[in-house]
Amino acid sequence: MKRIILGLLLAGIVTSCGKTKKEETVAEVTETIIEEAKEELAPISNAMMENAVIYEANIRQYSEEGSFKAFTKDIPTLKNLGVKVLWVMPIYPISTTKSKGPLGSYYAISDYTKVNPEFGTLEDFRDLVKTAHDNGIYVILDWVANHTGWDHVWLKEHPEFYTKDDKDEITHTVGTDWTDVADLNYDNQEMRAEMVKAMQYWLKEEGVDGFRCDVAGMVPVDFWESTVAELKKIKPVFMLAEGWEPELMENAFDMGYGWDTHHVMNHIAKGENTVAAWDKRMKQVDSMYAADDILMNFTSNHDENSWNGTVQERMGDAKELFAALSYVAPGMPLIYSGQEYDMDKRLLFFEKDTIIKKKGVFYPLYEKLGKLKNENIALHGGKSAASYERIKTSADDKVLAFKREKENNKVIFVANMTKEPVKFTAEYEGEFKEYLSGESIMGTKGQEYDLDPWQYLILIE
Prior knowledge:
Elements: H1 2-15, H2 26-37, H3 46-50, E1 53-57, H4 59-62, H5 68-72, H6 75-80, E2 83-88, H7 122-134, E3 138-143, E4 147-149, H8 154-157, E5 181-183, H9 189-204, E6 210-213, H10 221-231, E7 238-241, H11 248-251, E8 255-257, H12 259-269, H13 275-288, E9 294-297, H14 302-308, H15 311-315, H16 319-328, E10 332-336, H17 362-375, E11 387-390, E12 399-406, E13 409-416, E14 422-425, E15 430-434, E16 440-443, E17 448-451, E18 456-460
Parallel strand pairs: 1-2, 1-10, 2-3, 3-6, 6-7, 8-9, 9-10
Antiparallel strand pairs: 4-5, 11-12, 12-13, 13-18, 14-17, 15-16, 15-18
Helix pairs in contact: 1-2, 9-10, 12-13, 16-17
């Protein structure tokens, strides 16, 4: 629509140039028109969630500079990938007391309302948010409500905000090796109130659009429910829980992690499970979650990459198949920083590292998948998701075939989920276009198909 408006306005310049001042160039007028034609980013809505791609930004490692400015330059490339939600890993100052590694963990926060000078200034961050909004992308901040770093002012001024052991000493989160953080006590109502104020600051003053909440299941659900209700009084927000628990999405979060879906992908890629494990997982999702719950699909994230291995290490030759599956399956697909550049390295977590930004296989693949996700309502995966229907084949232990459908729009996914070639028949017929190749395919019942190892088809009817 913007392009049409701009085209009409430019045509108006040509036909009415006699009315324009001689010293005013076409370029100057064009620039003015572009600025005036820019639409404000609409508030967060359920419609946005249906066809969004989410991107996890690791500011420290994204560039050699590791800065807000360096990342902001590349935001238009994320728009090309169909990204509509930008999840920025913690941007706050990092505690040095008991810190791990040379630079410490993003998740050991010393101040909830300031930015880490390592990344730049608050003005730099504001420019990042503005640039994202100008490109139709919402920004959510990584929020760490379970604990703070040991330098946080609350430790001196409000020690009652923290969990204490039997020696009456503040402790890190019990049952973890998170020795660089102090556990917060959610029995303390004053601490809860201060936490809410800090979150409200980023919405009111800095224009962010929601939060990804770290280890959300370790924080009481009633805190999230009351807090989100307060946040929504300011503006509509998008809330992502790092958690799988269905109760988190009843009254607080829009989306949770599809951890078990991810684990099934890994096991199938390694030959440890078959398609039956995927089918079992899809039935589990149906039984565990409400129809309007959203799960995030991913082949990597910052935890998986740094601690469990790269996509290549975990999925090998199946990595492209599972990237595609994360888009066409119900839910919202995630791209972690560097995946669009075929990153095959475990990024360091507590010290500086750098993503090499060189386009290979995945940038054009994500570009095509993002376009399909954005534009075809048969892939809606939000609160009014398209249906998911398994298609029977003669090799259901090796071949995954299913249909997504909404308002008579259909997308068929067919994949060989093994490292061996497979022949099979499928109980479906019709005339299709294979989305990635553009090839026309005529299918009839009883027809035999051949798929190479880990080959997949995305069929548009």
